[in-house]
Amino acid sequence: MTAMSTAKRHVISILMENESGALSRVAGLFSARGYNIESLTVAPTEDRSLSRLTLVTSGSNEIIEQIMKQLHKLIDVVKLMDLNEYPHIEREMMMVKVDTQKAGAHERVKHVSDIFRARIIDVGEKTYTVEATGSHDKLDAFLKVLGGELRIIEVVRSGSMGIARGSASLNL
Amino acid sequence: MELTGAEIFVECLKAEGVDTIFGYPGGAVLFIYDALYKAAEDLNHILVRHEQGAVHAAEGYAKSTNRPGVVLVTSGPGATNAVTGIADAYMDSVPLVVFTGQVNRDLIGNDAFQEVDIVGISRPCVKHNFLVTDIRDLATTIKKAFYIASTGRPGPVLVDIPKDITQMRCEFSYPDSIAIRSYNPTVKGNRRQIRRAIDLMLEAQRPMLYTGGGVILSGAAEALTTLTRRLGFPITNTLMGLGGYPATDPQFVGMLGMHGTFEANNAMHNSDLVIAIGARFDDRVTGNIEKFCPYAKVIHVDIDPASISKNVKVDVPIVGDVKGVLTDMLAELDERGTSPDPANTADWWQQINEWRKTDCLHYEQDDTGIRAQYVVEKLWEITGGDAYVCSDVGQHQMWAAQFYRFDKPNRWINSGGLGTMGFGLPAAMGVQIAHPKETVACITGDGSIQMCIQELGTCMQYQLPVKIISLNNGYLGMVRQWQEFFYQKRYAMSYMEALPDFVKLAEAYGHVGMRIDKPADVEGALREAMAMKNRLVFMDFITKREGNVYPMVPAGAGQNEMILV
Predict the structure, then answer these.
(1) Which of A16, A25, A70 sits opposite B306 (nearest CB)?
(2) A73 touching B, CB under 8 A?
(3) ipTM field
(4) With respect to CATH, is domain B2-171 assigned 3.10.350.10?
(5) Which of B182, B186, B281, B307 to mutate to test the interface with A (most CBs of A within 10 A)?
(6) How do residues B382-397 score in pLDDT, each as one tens digit?
(7) Yes or no: is domain A8-85 CATH 3.30.70.260?
(8) What dihedral angle (degrees, nearest 10) is formed by the CA atoms of B98, B103, B109, B113?
């Protein structure tokens, strides 16, 4: 037995049959085998018979290898790809509702949003709602800066989506 | 041709070559039962007494024939009662197609009478499952179910059919073949890896063949025997793999694992090349994984890629059907015109023969009380080693595995992975139905037999002459053994108070009952029972109360750290 490598964050892309119950097979696999899910995002692709799922998990190389094999074993999974093996782009979308009653709050939100290339998408009497897109880390940083001075009321994150750079791709 | 859903169901089964269905009727499957009534000449339906029995019977049928077993139960409790059997089949990779009735589609989700989400409940213990939502998909779904259940690593597939679908009509045609874009099991082993494996085998000094249930499922016993003899290596079988190689052959060193032989476990521990074939490095085999096979390179042949490097890091992985891979290995040896030099393994065999002298399965049968081991050995002698032996779970299961020496595959039918008490009797029914002329024995204990004892009724209805060998020690023996070893003899709830009179019980069902409590009577009783070809005989052997299964690898120990007696 070789020593287990250390746990690392992995982004796994999955193409699966767009059928009822397919998503619960993936989610059930993770809970049954004790793998963790950091985020999971799913929607149909340009081919309506297929769903594309991006799953962020973490584990040693051995665990990730098992996760890939167990996912592949699910009958509804058509293809999958560990994006960590390729140069890839990761994006997540977030909507943040911020309390703007504090003096200077409006300017602060606008300023921080400019720096992070976020957009204000709703202006309320006492709140601003901001939309931000970026890597997981960038959104974490954005939240940290924004929350440093202002009260954050609500956060909605999509979970990460990923795609490989260049000609590497996950399709039929 | 336009047919009802129920008629389509029947036609699909006929097209799949199904001859037997194990089942139990109920509201949601009444249209199907009505169609079966009209098709009784083509499809034999066996009415069990509890749905768990139906699934185990189908497992017995499948394990003894390598053909998928078929189950039909109703919705709600019918479906939930089948879950234990389904989980059992999943753990032991048994090909099954289980049909469950479901409430009408417009009632699904309404908490309707006898409604359960069986697709959700069974999801973690099936290879795949389906809910049929459109009658036009019914035939294709059934085709897919049989295809998935019986290809790749076999397993149970569940098809949930709402009642209204069985009543409505639709044009019927059964697909000749099916392709599923997301399911293409690798069957052929990689040539380069097979060459690497052969390279290692030719050089090995202390090789060990370690083979499991995959050999049986793949129908590879003959190929395995040919290859093993050509290699000249020692071979051990897992509990599920017994019969994959003739147990009476000198190259066979016995079963390995927790209650395996001293020689098999020590040989594994000291091996420099472990060749795992259709086995999955289960914890009952490896013992403490940190101490497992410290000196060995590992070759692993398995049809399921997820089994490879799951528990033990593998040096040469070969994904493929066992039979094909073994045949390719033989072809590779032929092509090279070579075989391993027996001189390479001469010292190794000498060492193994030293370990064999320990005689780890030794026991004494004196006249103070019947030893369970003795009963199994006599059964082996009297049946010429050629019976189908089904087992329940516990001490008797281990004694059966140790002392009934299986020379042929598909003869040893037991619940290995899930360890389901109650498996034995219904499994034996399934085996007897598949092999009406053969001797089918059910080795059981006073605990296990009571878990599905209602199936004595089924055996009577269909005149199934199963021979029940009850090794009755008045304890839940394996639990008691662990309590003796590891819980300072605090026998919490392992004592079976108020055992029934099994002889009267058998007679109440219309069978023959025998009670045997003297060692001198064992052989005669077995012969007498075996001579009753057309009767089920319940032989209640009153055995020594506190017999233990030896040898044993205690939990947390390595394979070389066995308790001998």
Answers:
(1) A70
(2) yes
(3) 0.91
(4) no
(5) B182
(6) 999 999 999 999 999 9
(7) yes
(8) -110
